[in-house]
Each structure stands twice: as structure tokens, then as C-alpha cells.
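Quick sanity check, Large ribosomal subunit protein bL21:
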Amino acid sequence: MYAIVEIAGQQFKVSKDLKVYVHRLADKEGDAISFAKVLLLDDNGTITLGAPAVEGASVEAKVLQHLKGDKVIVFKKKRRKGYKKRNGHRQYLTQIQISGITAPGAKKAAAKKEAAPATEETVEAPKKKVAKAKKEETQE
């Protein structure tokens, strides 16, 4: 099972127990957080696509640590003008671990599966009676 979820303005493909680096979140280390903006949900081949988000679906995660990313060098130059600017940047990141993905109506779907076979049996029974009645008419 995996989901595509929007976290801090970026979209991530996540699954259970996956560690992800996202832009800095305001939550403290060790906090449990939930993301409700699930854009796509895949449950063993059954794909649910949101418009724009899947209602009732959420992704739970735990904040592991806050850190800074690798240094990125920004270098600007204009040739033949003597213009050079060198600047560095380190992005503030948060590492989270996905603890679970909840699909919308997970308990309701199980109840519908139990009710479905009962309706099929009631539908099949009259067909058999009709078939038996047709056989009796042909024999007479």
C-alpha cells in the first residue's frame, strides 16, 4: 500500500515505515503528526484518485529529527564585466517516518463484503425455482 501525499508544499510517494526528508515542520521531535491531503491511494492494485484530495484518507507520521541539508553553492557571474557573486545555502529539513496510511471507510468496506454474499444467495434462489418450473412445464 502506498500513497501520494502533499507535505509542506511538496508531493511525496510514501509507504509504511518509510523515512522522508521534508521542509522544516513546526512540530517537535517525537511528535505524531497526520497529513490529510492524500492525492492518490493505492491499496494492492485498487487505485483511488482524489479530486483534488481523497476524502477520509490520511497519512500518520512521527517526527524523528530536525537538521540542515547539504550546502548548496550559488555562483553568479557576468562575463567580461568583472561581476562575480558567491553565496552558500543550507536548507532546514525535518526527517519523518511514516507510521501508517488509513484509507477512507476501511471498516465500512469490511461490513459491505459480509452483506454482499447474502444478497447473492437470495438472487440465485429464485433463478433455480424458475428453472425448475420451466422443466416441469416442458415435461407436461
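Posting the structure with no commentary besides this: Residues 117 and 123 are 10 Å apart (CA to CA).
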